[in-house]
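protien #1 (seq + structre)
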Amino acid sequence: MNSTELMQLDSSCVMQTYGRFPVAIDHGQGATLYSPEGKTYIDFASGIGVNCLGYGNKAWLEAVTTQAKKLAHISNLYYSEPYIRLAQQLTGRTGMKRVFFANGGGEANEGMIKLCRKYSYDKYGTGRSTIITLRDSFHGRTITTLTATGQDVFHQYFFPFTEGFQYAVADDIESVKALDDGTVCAVMVELVQGEGGVLPLSPEFVSSLQALCQEKDWLLAVDEVQTGVGRTGKLFCFQNYGILPDVVSFAKGIGGGLPLAGIMAGEKTQMVLTPGTHATTFGGNPICCAGGLAVLEQLNEEFLSSVREKGNYLREKIASMPGVTGVRGMGMMLGIGLAEGLQCGDIVKKLLEEGLLCLTAGHNTIRLLPPLSISQEEMDQGLAILQRVLAG
């Protein structure tokens, strides 16, 4: 089917919950995508950070194909090798203690919220269940994770929302302390706020937050759905800050394109979730976890160093482009601030027309999440398009 036929069929049988761009994608190779008609696009979005190894990665393809021929699904009533090996890799490379596997970021954050509240209930009983999150945060699309999201625009339509969330100001430790009313059990943060505008938290704030959580026996819960799996130049973003959280969620890049997510628990939270308290049918799927193992095997220190180098290269080139007021972020998670009069949505549409896929974020920001494996040639092709569009 051609692009027009696909769009027409979509409009007749698919719920119209997405503001899709008028582009259909048929296949990809490296960081280059192709429409059914053969038009090429340089990908600076990677499926919103999911396709961390790009398209057609041989080791990933071999891993998932081999596993698909062997065992596709068995449920969590039985043991299977891929999820156990993946959990071993994650804990061994992070200092976290145990892993629970889920399927997507919202689901992972739901599990993290449940863990935080159960930890406090087990230790203190009722009345200590409030979770502090930050303004401009984004934690998911379920009822509870929408409530956790610190943006009023998401608190509509689906009333009543889940109780028990308060919102502090990023990089303002006093605003966190002001919410201490005796009911708090955890603070949940993105170390780089993605949807909110690619806004990194300051190291001083994160250090103070960790100390406060330790003092109060609040759990420090870090949402690494978008920042994890090499995106910021370390395997997980918290490693850039030199901290070890009590619980961490992850998703997006871990499956290399397959639906895979989860939470990692630290020393004092590793035994909180017990049989019957949390579960999922598809979590730890053998094919997805085989893909996850192929991802982690390639994200060695040499690869992660290249992510940092590529991110610095992109940042330097973009900073000097017309209409750019600044570039923020870490590694290959970058946000481009625009001069007054330029609208990120309009720019992203023009970039698409010229053959470059980018994303938007809050604070009128163009967001870049290229495949971590993107080549120098593909980066330069994308930068040339960006330069041309910004120059008008």
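ok now protien #2
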Amino acid sequence: MRIVVLAGGLSPERNVSLSSGTMVCQALREGGHQAALVDMYLGVSALGEDLFTAPLPAQGAQVDRQAPDLEQVKAARPGGGTSLFGPGVLELCQGADMVFLALHGACGEDGRVQAAFDLLGIPYTGSGHLGSALAMDKDLTKRLVAPLGVATPKWERIDYGAADLPGLLDRLDIPCVVKPVASGSSIGVSIAHSREELRQALELGLAQGGQCVVEQYVAGREIQVGILEDRALPSIEIIPEQGFYDYEHKYQPGAAREICPAPIPPEWERRLGAAALTVFRALGLQVYARADFIVTPDGTPWFLEINTLPGMTPTSLVPQQAQAAGLGYGALCQRILEASRKAREAGQ
């Protein structure tokens, strides 16, 4: 197949996406496909066959410790412009058999790219535009799945400005978790155990737009479940070396211990898988995803969020879970391609 691996974009998770894209492109080439790694925002200088044989970035699979400066990214695009699609990107994608979406975060995981591709008739990997949009919004996701018997921490969405901070500091319960309503990779997420930590968390949320979910803090084990073609993969337990599973712990080797399969009783595994599939199906997702949970000592899985384009970096979780199920990285990429082709042909 002739495949464009779309990565980068204009999102705080840009560097994670470029890492995923580099890994995926290499695996597809090794699997016999023609694959081109394309930065969605910066675009290409020219359309040509050399894009499908160009050397991949030597350091492309590594993720920087800090999120990128998006203003610098904007300044790096020749000719500027306001479109999220860089020069030549749409034309290149229209000529491909499939676009493998290695995008993460608000630029690529929120349904807008999927909707544009649906309108243009461009086949792509993963879930469709509606499910992607719903899953990206942490508030909407919880509203949809809570009535289905999926345990999820109490929460409220807050849209606020600087003038609202004193009132929020007075009325919000602690401990709590403050997170942007639509983001990933734990960017902007804070755990507040004191009023001062809550103030810092709310100020961080304000700097990122002032649209947040404030969630009841639930203490327990962090366990995540991948889903591939409507089946739960073996769960994985995350044990950060210190603090919580933030951006650095996710992408810096050695920053967290990841145990797969998770060392939990079979009944806990069954509950986690059932809860993850309930969320996956309720949102109308397709192909693959990864659901995040906190499991309390009594074995209750508390659902936090679901990611429709989970990372494919060297430290990412879904590839580890697939490996535990007997599916190597290249085979996982191939399964995603085949399942996505069927989903698009079915109009999903």
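The radius of gyration is 20 Å.
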